[in-house]
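DM between two lab members

TW: hey, do you still have the Protein translocase subunit SecY entry open?
JB: yeah, one sec
JB: this one, 433 aa:
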Amino acid sequence: MLGAIGRAFRTPDLRRKLLFTLAIIVLYRLGSYIPAPGVDYTAVQACVNNNDFESGAFGLINLFSGGALLQLSVFALGIMPYITASIITQLLRVVIPRFEQLHKEGATGQAKLTQYTRYMTIGLALLNATTLIATARTGALFGNAPGCDNLIADETWFGISVMVLAMTAGTGLIMWMGEQITERGVGNGMSILIFTAVAAGFPAALGAILSEQGIDIFVIVCAVGLLLVALVVFVEQSQRRVPVQYAKRMVGRRMFGGTSTYIPIKVNMAGVIPVIFSSSVLYLPSLISQFGDPEDAWVQWIGQYLTTGDHPVYMAGYFLLTIFFTYFYVAITFNPEEVADNMKRYGGFIPGIRAGRPTAEYLNFVLTRITFTGALYLAFVAMIPLIALVLINANQNFPFGGTSLLIIVGVGLETVKQIDSQMQQRHYEGLLR
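TW: and the structure you got?
JB:
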């Protein structure tokens, strides 16, 4: 492995890309610890060290920001506004024909959609920064813990405006850094930054397990983590290959077609998006309950069943929502009718299946059953932190499970593939032999 890394750094072009990517990562992590203007840094650090607020939507955003959210730094919002904007853009393709038309126009249309996503990211960043600062002023950011309601040193309108602009600018800078990695570095820039933020929390999470649970539980957790990583790698690489043949056809004096290929349908086509959706939806009841009277029956019911992850009702809801959102997202991102029409247009067909509508029905049949397996897999991985919360009293950002594990393995596999392909282009030998 070390020899393979050495070969990568001995290649001039690849070395420049790797060093550029590492430099951007260092700047990104540095910005996560620079406090926003007007923040009482001492009070924030005291609240971070004395509280374990790692659940709900704030815990998820804090995970994606690499801990910058609870630090109230200039990069507090992390990459979450961009993720949300990208998801909204994909969903709008279903309801806005203009977006679907741009998606089909190739590079020009994709550039326009990317521009819309950037504008939406800035708008969401303004909204999220305002919400975050308002939450920090009331003390709700740390669950109304004692001493955590005076985190903003300058509460004038000018001071608050500067904080909002600083956090919004931080999100814009993160978005720019991600695009620079994509253009001049290695891998997908946004994915690399998310990977960096999530991986940054692994040492602290494992250290907490070692100090609180002892060496025995720590070794067991590491062993189980390795097994889970192997399982996730196996499933993420698994796919159903639907064979496709193209008929021979004459265009002028040249013969085209007559080749065989396949349509790869992955077991997990939805990625980590369903888990994010499920976490966000389950946080909404507890967010709404904060505006109610603590003596009301519905507020108490939400606090008992839908606030902590160790309750069976919360676990069941999380499991079912993950399955539902897996089917929902796959239905949006993969359209069997569109695939069947494209195959028919270019003379392709699945052996034994007629072109057109029968092909779409067959693809839908295969996709539905493959997605069921993928949905169960995602629900199982998403439940691991909740099970760890019950068994060893770990927090909900347990490192080997949920969004953390899916992001680490998924981005790691994709980045290694890109490095391997670039090395094969230059040396006819990949990263790993």
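TW: got it. The longest strand covers residues 239-246. The chain has two domains: 1-200, 204-400.
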